[in-house]
Amino acid sequence: MAFMGDMISPSPLWQNGPSPGAFYNFPGNSNHGPSSHTNQDFRAHSAAPITTTTTVIGIKFDKGCVIAADTLGSYGSLARFRDCPRVLKVNDLILLGSGGDYADYQYLRDIIEQKIIDEHCVGDGLQLKPKSLHCWLTRVLYNKRSKMDPLWSNYVVAGIQDGEPFLGAVDKLGTAYEDAAIATGMGAYMATPLLRDVLDKGPLNEESAKALARKCMEVLYYRDARSFPRYQLGVVTSAGVRVEEPTEIGQNWSLAHMIHMK
If you ran DSSP here, which 8-state letter would residue 100 be given? Predict the structure, then answer.
């Protein structure tokens, strides 16, 4: 009879894993059962981002990568929060930039920081690598959108792996790619042509890459209504990761008298 009972109510496919046809409760939902998604009320899921951030610029140069992003968190069209840093040093090999919903970035940032703490506690001398983080973000974001509850943010991962610079992007659908120049948000339309025009002329050094990132942030400040003149710049090389203090864009509105609204 016990055998028949097991056939009628079989145990999960593996311990703490999903039943066949179910989704993972990952990450951060370990206190729920593997099939708890069946009772979710999808009307309670976030249908749109609330406090949003805009473009992240990523540039690969000969010995590393540069990431730049401003510090504004917009509440709709209101420039509400003006100190929202979103260029994160993950470890000595990885730099992370985020655009989109700021709360969703904070959620994943806390999980990533806990992963780094766990690695230090193991003490085996191994570090998370940029390609591993890029792949992990792809899986997490795709998993969340498969549950119809996406994280409304996109990410740029920069780092050094096996002595070579790595630059990759992941959007809220889990779509991932690698490139030598990446711009998210409005920057995908306004900054990408500037980036590719310079990179097509040959590889950059660190100072040239930083100057190009600053130029893109300046152009975006003038052209993107959700950008801000205060921005952060992060650099990752084989020597390590450093995130500079926020700096201001030198503004010049001398051409404003030539702009007429019709």
Answer: E
Token readout for 193 is 């042509």
Catalytic residue among 38, 51, 138, 237: 38
CA angle 248, 250, 254 (to 5 degrees): 145
Q: What one-letter code names the amino acid at 186?
A: M
**CA angle (162 as vertex; 161, 166 as ends), nearest 5:** 30
The phi, psi pair for 147, rounded to 5°, reads -90, 5
Give yes or no for a contact between 88 and 104, defined as CB atoms under 8 angstroms apart.
no
Which two three-digit tokens encode residue 68? 């730049």
CB 190 within 8 A of CB 105: no
Q: What are the backbone angles phi and psi of residue 157, rounded to the nearest 5°? A: -110, 125
What CA–CA distance (Å, rounded) separates 195 from 58? 9
Check if 138 is active-site: no
d(C-alpha 181, C-alpha 191), whole Å = 10
Helix (H, G, I), strand (E, B) or coil at 246: coil
* pTM (global) more than 0.85: no
CA 104 to chain centre: 10
The per-residue pLDDT string of the chain (262 residues; one tens digit each, 9 = 90 and over) reads 444 445 555 555 455 555 555 555 555 554 444 444 445 555 566 778 889 999 999 999 999 999 999 999 999 889 999 999 999 999 999 999 999 999 999 999 999 999 999 988 988 888 899 999 999 999 999 999 998 889 999 999 999 999 999 999 999 999 999 999 999 999 999 999 999 999 999 889 999 999 999 999 999 998 888 999 999 999 999 999 999 999 998 888 787 777 665 5
